[in-house]
Recover the amino acids of this structure.
């Protein structure tokens, strides 16, 4: 293998040459305490920066085995190292010329701790996958600047990041132990018959509509459980924690406008992920398979049986095998629920703010005016108990506007000045004393979910690009998959992974016989065995910046592909 001195010489020898001369840097170089792999060299200063990896052998890195023995610990350690690497890289990065010249960067993490391809810790080594903008003035190689990056900055960042004794051990320990506590807490939920837990003292509101950082200041009201739902749970590192445990069943969150209902639901919805220390939602933990449901008019739907919610559409359109390029608010919300059932969920989360009113409720007066035969929709109020009884699916829903829901709820929690109170007994009294005047409606009871088989003709992707753009878009050939209403997709790198997963699944598993869920399970199985990088087309190289999405978001991406064609099983 060549040495770092060979790399230095190569760089010096191409000084002032054209940018293409950088191509000669591809290869592996041995430094005194790590190996640098230059996997891909950018073709010009404006192209995406060059992809490199730095690998430190285990005996030099020196991480204690317990920090990567279990999955949650390893993911947290890798997350910690990625953040540390990123922070140092930012301080070394400076624009040294044209385009990305001088940039040193690694995948950027948000408030969630996710499995990423940016960092690997295993029994043999620690490896960071990052990018360097090879410096140029115009298109001319700037060797002195490149030498500085490769000979000073990179070794400095690697030394301060990938070697255990150079890290803040207290902070690292806190990061890893929190992840283990979160994992333990999520496991305990089901043992205790709970679907979500919100610890006392949690800070739920965010800084702004565009920032996921915690709201700060004296006006922040920390969460405090009502006594009726207060539970304490013992965690491996922190010991006892107390907070609100929401049991299985149908839970309403009510309260006046601006009293914190949606904020609570949003925290619960994000509780499927682990948050980092200091986030405020570290101990807001939800069952891993919770799915946020919303109306999403305009989305496409392929072969979904929504007859449990919608029947007798005009022109006799079949709702047992419903396809459309332009769903309405109610049909999109119905399709979202059925797809969540198909993927296998135990908890649905709904907010009136993002629901279709006619999907949620039809009151007594409207029932009198518009005959059931003329109303295709069976409102959710009449199916929410069937979901629980027939499928064991719980629901948490925010409804400030309809007391009819009191009759179908197991419990009613009222948000008042950002604090929850149990008002179940009072809601029952009111429901008994004032009959709402509405009758229960059922049309076609929801009993089974039809599995769907994606047809390969929609996935003939030779030469077609599958490309993620930001958080919300994937380009698939000529189609765009719009993910902006998939609210539990939280990180751009998850979207990058979704694009790779679609392509990977199309090549290997979509054969016209395998159901969508089997396809997704097969991909996730491969990822479990070989790491997320198995879906990368670059084998044994820098896999790009990817973060693991849940199977619900994978299914959501397939389901929003406008070219999708399916056969019902
Ligand atoms: P609702 O859904 O009941 O109308 P929201 O949840 O949207 O209310 O909250 C309204 C506002 O109050 C938001 O700006 C939110 O950030 C803020 N907020 C929510 N919870 C708290 C809290 N615990 N402390 C301080 N502000 C909060
Ligand atoms: Mg709201």
């Amino acid at each position: 293998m060549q040495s770092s001195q060979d790399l230095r010489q190569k760089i010096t020898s191409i000084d002032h040459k054209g940018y293409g001369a950088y191509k000669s840097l591809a290869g592996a170089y041995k430094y005194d305490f790590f190996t640098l792999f230059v996997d891909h060299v950018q073709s010009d200063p404006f192209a995406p920066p060059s992809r490199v990896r730095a690998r430190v052998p285990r005996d030099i890195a020196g991480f204690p085995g317990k920090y990567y023995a279990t999955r949650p610990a390893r993911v947290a350690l890798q997350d910690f190292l990625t953040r540390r690497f990123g922070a140092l890289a930012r301080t070394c990065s400076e624009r040294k010329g044209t385009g990305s010249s001088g940039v040193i960067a690694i995948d950027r993490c948000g408030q969630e701790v996710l499995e990423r391809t940016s960092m690997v810790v295993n029994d043999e080594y620690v490896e960071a996958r990052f990018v360097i903008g090879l410096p140029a003035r115009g298109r001319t190689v700037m060797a002195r600047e490149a030498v500085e990056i490769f000979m000073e900055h990179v070794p400095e960042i690697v030394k301060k990041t990938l070697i255990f004794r150079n890290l803040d051990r207290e902070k690292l320990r806190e990061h890893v132990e929190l992840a283990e506590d979160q994992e333990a807490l999520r496991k305990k939920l089901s043992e205790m018959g709970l679907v979500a837990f919100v610890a006392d003292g949690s800070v739920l509101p965010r800084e702004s509509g565009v920032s996921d950082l915690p709201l700060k200041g004296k006006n922040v009201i920390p969460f405090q459980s009502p006594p009726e739902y207060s539970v304490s749970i013992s965690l491996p590192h922190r010991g006892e924690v107390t907070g609100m445990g929401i049991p299985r069943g149908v839970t309403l969150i009510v309260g006046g406008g601006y009293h914190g209902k949606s904020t609570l639901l949003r925290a619960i919805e994000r509780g499927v992920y682990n948050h980092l220390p200091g986030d405020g939602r570290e101990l807001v933990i939800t069952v891993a398979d919770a799915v946020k449901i919303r109306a999403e008019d305009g989305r496409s739907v392929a072969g979904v049986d929504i007859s449990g919610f919608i029947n007798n559409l005009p022109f006799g359109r079949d709702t047992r095998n419903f396809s459309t390029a332009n769903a309405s608010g109610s049909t999109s919300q119905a399709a979202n629920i059925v797809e969540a059932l198909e993927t296998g969920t135990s908890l649905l989360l709904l907010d009136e703010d993002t629901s279709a009113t006619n999907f949620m409720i039809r009151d007594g007066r409207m029932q009198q005016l518009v005959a059931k035969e003329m109303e295709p929709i069976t409102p959710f109020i009449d199916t929410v108990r069937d979901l629980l009884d027939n499928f064991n699916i719980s629901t948490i829903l925010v409804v400030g506007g309809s007391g009819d829901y009191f009759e179908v709820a197991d419990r009613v929690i009222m948000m008042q000045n950002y604090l929850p109170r149990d008002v179940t007994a009072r809601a029952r009294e009111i429901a008994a004393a004032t009959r709402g005047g509405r009758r229960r409606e059922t049309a076609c009871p929801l009993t089974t979910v039809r599995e769907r088989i994606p047809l390969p003709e929609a996935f003939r992707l030779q030469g077609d690009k599958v490309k993620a753009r930001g958080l919300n878009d994937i380009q698939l050939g000529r189609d765009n998959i719009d993910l902006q209403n998939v609210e539990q997709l939280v990180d751009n790198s998850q979207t990058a992974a979704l694009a790779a997963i679609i392509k990977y699944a199309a090549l290997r598993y979509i054969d016209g016989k395998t159901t969508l869920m089997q396809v997704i399970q097969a991909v996730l199985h491969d990822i479990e065995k070989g790491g997320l990088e198995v879906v990368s087309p670059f084998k044994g190289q820098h896999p790009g910046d990817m973060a693991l999405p849940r199977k619900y978001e994978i299914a959501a991406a397939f389901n929003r592909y406008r070219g999708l064609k399916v056969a019902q099983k």
Remarks:
- The pocket of magnesium ion (ligand 2) is lined by residues 261-262, 353 (CB under 6 Å).
- The chain has a mean pLDDT of 95.
- The longest strand covers residues 239-247.
- Residues 184 and 235 are 7 Å apart (CA to CA).
